Amino acid sequence: RDKNQVKLANWLLTSKSTIVLTGAGMSTESNLPDFRSKEGWWRSIDPITVAAPEALDNNYELFTDFYTARLEALEGTAPHEGHQVIADWEERGFVDAVATQNVDGLHTAAGSKNVYELHGSLKNIYCHNCGAKAAPSDFKAKRKCGVCGGKLRPGVILFGEMLPQEAWNTALSRIKSASLIIVIGTSLEVYPANQLPLLASGRTVYLNAEVSSSGQDFDLVLEGKAKTIITEVQRIMHEA
Ligand code: NAD
Ligand code: APR
């Protein structure tokens, strides 16, 4: 048995409050690319051209193509066993909530109830001008807002935009008071989500395919694939 996995299993079983913080690495095993790995989105696209508000004014065509591609990628995917185990841990009282930087909705699809979407949600389409809601099919068909004729966009937080206050404040206060924080599948490169582990008062765990560049110290580090490690830890918990 991997001693770090045994340790995480014991911490999960004994912790009185546990929050999971996830990033794009949690969804690569559901065939959704992350951003900064070698097959990540930002290896082929400059984020400033599609993930900043200016993109809506400067190159709306590229912007709509990029998010349409991501919406279409989403249609063919499902949560993997790792998402399902995290939902099971919440069900059994070992995890209280998931704060995620992901916009793919896979934690909720897997059955997690308390999910804080710090960077919004891809499927939540609305008008950039008047805020009127629209359907993903309207956005994919490159239609304009039915109310004001403005530009439609996904409810994904772009670089520089404010994070949804409610999700951010709840995640922040729960992470500050939790006795265990498990950070999974994120490079921790993007502010302000990357500050959350630093604000934790409890034990901190980093589970990532690449663990050397986070620049942050953790009480426990598990290097490897999220799905593999999470399901291994689940097996150890069942044997305990
Ligand atoms: P940033 O633009 O990533 O973050 C600063 C602003 O972005 C904040 O106001 C934050 O609220 C907002 N933001 C909200 N949601 C966001 C989201 N989904 N993605 C990104 N930002 C969001 O500024 P930065 O940290 O300088 O990052 C700019 C680029 O530089 C990013 O690609 C980042 O990965 C890269 N980078 C950042 C750091 C770092 O320590 N911040 C280090 C190396 C590389
Ligand atoms: N298992 C574990 N870790 C993985 C896996 C996996 N199967 N696949 C990838 N990873 C790791 C990568 O090694 C990388 O360190 O997950 C991390 C993903 O980091 P990023 O690609 O930077 O994604 P993320 O941290 O979520 O980016 C934060 O940046 O572009 C913005 O708004 C966007 O929410 C995103 C934010």
Automatic annotation (TrEMBL):
One of its GO terms (molecular function) is metal ion binding. The active site is at residue 119. The chain holds residues 104 to 343 of 347 of the full protein. Residues 1-240 form the Deacetylase sirtuin-type domain. It is an enzyme of class 2 (transferase). This is protein acetyllysine N-acetyltransferase. It comes from Alkalicoccus daliensis. Zn(2+) binds at residues 127, 130, 145, 148. Keywords: Metal-binding, NAD, Transferase, Zinc. Its EC number is 2.3.1.286.
